[in-house]
Design goal:
about 375 residues; alpha/beta; Rossmann fold; 2 domains; six-stranded parallel β-sheet; four-stranded parallel β-sheet; 14 helices; disordered N terminus; binds beta-D-glucopyranose
Length: about 375
């Protein structure tokens, strides 16, 4: 009884802290949350669930293969599922529920919609499984134990900085520069984090008058790209060109990832205009080629191999009952708790540093070198 009261008090305290904008050291963990911290362990050949979203970028395709191979090699039984694009949220909910019923000891989730998994992750917890949010945070629940991702805020900062650098290098004139802003899908918690990171660099320049968003669309609701779909970005760029750039020149575009960057470039080319400075993310093959050809300006190297390895390392620690290695216990408040995270460092890539940035990614390094011969 006493324990329950203490937990409730802790939760009230955590809620109060988050209301005042401060983050608690460890968030308001429930009993179930603390149970997963070390101590118990489980069988070395246990089933491990991996629920991935639809394949909106190459990194998701690669992650599935790497999880299957890596978990098998580590002795576990992987159950890797993708939610099909047609009905992703409901399918992913069902898949996670099936993993719980099937006795998975850890469930790693790349959420389609981070706000719509509260029931399923709670069920996972109630069944004694540990939940790891992979790449995208799962929101509004105490039942997510860990987060493993690249530092998404930093991704945005790097994109904002690259846009400014590209404008200086390529626009052919000094400030002010005309730009447009794109953000990702609003059901992905990462989208707002990328955008906030980028705007932490760009907003001061907008305020100083060095950057001008000619359409006036600077709110994340106006810049969002539903489902991270290329066709939605292309359509929005088409209409921005018509509404705001009949006489003005477009100098740069903040694009949150490579798929959307290429759609934006296609739109501009089809309109017969000069390709502006366009940012990206993910180091997709077609975008790396575009960068080497001098078209897309930048991308981000978030090496999926390293991220999957880190997630599998967490599974190994949990299996042995060891303490799980995290390196950030303050940044990712999911609305209910600060989720202990292991964050990896993203790397900005432009034509200039591509060979160095992909030194450890043989397939991309080969592409870069083929342009340098
Ligand atoms: C990932 C990005 C990816 C996007 C679309 C985000 O959550 O972090 O790497 O480009 O989803 O798939």
């Amino acid at each position: 009884m006493k324990k329950i009261i203490v937990t409730a008090t802790a939760l009230v305290a955590a809620a109060a802290l988050s209301l005042t904008g401060c983050s608690s050291e460890r968030g308001g963990g429930t009993g179930a949350g603390t149970e997963t911290e070390g101590a118990k362990g489980f069988a070395a050949d246990a089933s491990i669930g991996v629920a991935l979203p639809d394949k909106t970028s190459e990194n998701w395709v690669l992650a599935g293969q790497l999880f299957t191979d890596g978990l098998t090699k580590a002795g576990f039984k992987p159950d890797v599922q993708y939610a099909p694009a047609s009905n992703t949220v409901a399918e992913q909910q069902n898949q996670i529920q099936a993993m719980v019923t099937g006795g998975a000891k850890v469930i790693i989730i790349g959420a389609k919609d981070g706000k719509q998994l509260t029931t399923q992750v709670q069920a996972a917890h109630d069944a004694g499984a540990t939940v790891i949010a992979y790449d995208r945070l799962i929101e509004n629940t105490d039942a997510v134990d860990y987060y493993v991702a690249f530092d998404n805020f930093k991704v945005g900062v790097l994109q904002g900085q690259a846009l400014l650098k590209g404008l200086e290098e390529r626009s052919g004139h000094a400030a002010p520069w005309n730009i447009e802003l794109f953000s990702g899908s609003s059901d992905d918690a990462n989208s707002a984090v990328f955008f906030k990171g980028a705007m932490s660099v760009l907003q001061p320049e907008i305020d100083k008058g060095n950057l001008k968003v000619v359409s006036g669309q600077t709110d994340i609701a106006q810049t969002a790209t539903d489902g991270w779909k290329a066709e939605n970005a292309q359509r929005r760029m088409d209409s921005l060109l018509t509404s705001s750039y009949s006489t003005e020149t477009l100098d740069g575009v903040l694009s949150p990832n490579d798929t959307l960057a290429r759609a934006i470039i296609t739109s501009v080319k089809q309109a017969g205009k000069t390709v502006p400075v366009v940012t990206g993310q993910d180091s997709e093959v077609e975008s790396v080629k575009s960068i080497m050809e001098g078209e897309q300006y930048s991308t981000i190297n978030k090496d999926t191999t390293l991220l999957v390895q880190q997630a599998i390392k967490m599974v190994g620690e949990l299996q042995k009952g060891d303490k799980v290695d995290v390196n950030d216990e303050k940044s990712y408040n999911n609305g209910k708790k600060v989720v202990p995270a292991y964050l990896l460092d993203p790397i900005i890539v432009t034509k200039e540093n591509a060979a160095e940035a992909y030194a450890n990614v043989p397939s991309l390094l080969e592409i870069v070198k083929s342009y340098q011969q």
